[in-house]
Amino acid sequence: MKLSFNRNDLLKAINIVNKAVSSGTTMPILKCILLDASSDEIILIGNDMELSIETSVPGTVLERGRVALDARLFSEIVRKLPDSDVEINTDDRLITNIKCGKAVYNIPGQDAEDFPYPPIIEEENVLSVSQLSLKEMINQTLFSINANENNKLMTGELFEIRNNTFRIVALDGHRIALRKLELAGEYADLKAVVPGKTLSEVSKILSDELDQPVSMCFSSNQLMFEFDETKVFTRLIEGEYFHIDNMISSDYQTKVVINKKEFYECIDRASLLIREGDNKPIVFTVEDGQIELDINTTSGSMNESLEIEKEGMDIKIGFNPKFLTEPLRVIDDETISLYMINSKAPCFIKNDEGTYLYLILPVNIL
Amino acid sequence: MKLSFNRNDLLKAINIVNKAVSSGTTMPILKCILLDASSDEIILIGNDMELSIETSVPGTVLERGRVALDARLFSEIVRKLPDSDVEINTDDRLITNIKCGKAVYNIPGQDAEDFPYPPIIEEENVLSVSQLSLKEMINQTLFSINANENNKLMTGELFEIRNNTFRIVALDGHRIALRKLELAGEYADLKAVVPGKTLSEVSKILSDELDQPVSMCFSSNQLMFEFDETKVFTRLIEGEYFHIDNMISSDYQTKVVINKKEFYECIDRASLLIREGDNKPIVFTVEDGQIELDINTTSGSMNESLEIEKEGMDIKIGFNPKFLTEPLRVIDDETISLYMINSKAPCFIKNDEGTYLYLILPVNIL
Lengths: 366, 366
Fold this sequence. Notes:
2 copies of one chain form a homodimer.
Chain A: E1 2-6, H1 7-17, E2 32-37, E3 42-47, E4 51-57, E5 60-63, E6 65-70, H2 71-80, E7 85-90, E8 95-100, E9 103-108, E10 126-130, H3 131-139, E11 156-162, E12 165-171, E13 175-182, E14 190-195, H4 196-205, E15 213-218, E16 222-227, E17 230-235, E18 254-259, H5 260-271, E19 282-287, E20 290-296, E21 301-307, E22 309-312, E23 315-319, H6 321-330, E24 335-340, E25 347-350, E26 356-360
């Protein structure tokens, strides 16, 4: 095999597929990136058996072939090469020669036969949205999964199409995060639970461009994301996802409209008094025109009041501050609305358009 | 005690004294920052019993007093306060009220009586240099100490005044780093070995200004650095430092002049083939007009050649690459000169002005 690339193109592709290379595995082949130039296209693949990423690199195939190279070593080498043309040349014993300027490396390769290729997914049930939208929808919900939960469904996010609306849901037993996107066009209804780790890696590769699309291709147990020169394959989590619609109510007794940045900073200031294993709540006292925030822990106490617009009843209610700071950090709006029923019922943060909704269970403060 | 400050002034002072606060200690009082407003000046002090830093903060003493506050909590609180005036108010039970805007904290304080003050050092044997010079001299030598060595002297740096020249020396058994500064004025000869940890912290606080002085005040077993509003106190390491002058020779058989950046990047590229516990050298083959660099490890091999100006004999010599990249990273010059005698004798990197010198022992490559 003999290939030629620009160093920057190659590095960009390596950085993408590296996200699917497992460092913890005991199988040496899974620590590799596969270079596949068995046709005139050069493809790089990483695969940790749950998540698999392939991307094509611009370059010239001088001689067809395939080789698997240790991902860490290969990416460090390319990262440190000067910005120039890189030539990669693999001999019959899989010794791979990497040449750039006057620097010449020789590293051992592994047999591409041993490398697991991603599954083949039929291109039906395809959903296409902008890369930016998907990236935001993931980042605005993913913190609400429970990555360490025994219940596998809680370690993933629900991707759902219903009535031509695309919805992503994450929950962990104390809260629900939900993002909605109206779709232009007709789509069949669909439900799939996508592993959180996959979504975390995908959101890092997706671009911030609103006019660049990503298409998602669902099979019964697999999902493929396709965008730019890249395909990401992931297995889906099996099982029936939680029915959340009956947990979401639009009733409220108290509505609070508050400046998001001030509210976030105030809760963040309160949070620093909480030490690990010390689950003290932050207590809100809502009255006309102001909300008072109080926290009292073994480290000390803190009190602050903020201006609000209030509608409905006064209320005193307590929360785990983390469950508030996480959504506040990712909501784009300048002001947000909180909806509460009583000190024991879930609180909702949502906008009028219904594009986002966060349900947060309060903490007992009596 | 009742004090008022600007939040940014207070935070700046906390960040300085925090460098002397021990997080690993079992003595709670050493995890504190002392606020001392027993006169009309407000002083903050951190002390880990080896290193002690005090700095004065602009502010108003509304009521004199002293209190010791948990450093981590106090600095996190001040870091998260809005940029406004901060009022600190300690009551008889040492409960300390920190108020800024509408945010009010109450945290427990500790008795200032328990806090260890830094020693008093008589202002004799004072050396004054620019902050930038001292910072550079430390950063250009400190990597050569051996912080984990049983021989305490190797964990510090020699500060020496001789013939009105200030010299800093660091060594670890395989190499020596030396920086010199000619002093304007008459100084008594002096030798002191300063702990590496102190120097690492001091270099972080020193400014990058050439016209801001730092004065160093030496006693028999203590050193005080004084600059801006800050005093840093450190104990000295006892013992007779290594006699390095007879190890430094100006003889050579081969002189190599080379572009520093190219040389550094090339060795850095070779280094990535070295895995932990794999002490393979980088081998230089010096000939007329070029140096060839080779490395061969269990990960693979690498070869590169660079243009040089050579004077004297051809030579083949091996080094631990780290001992070259560390000085190359901190030398300011565009080209550097290497001086070698044979493949078993020390190599020197030095400039004609004699302001820096690095001695590096080669590795046996036969």
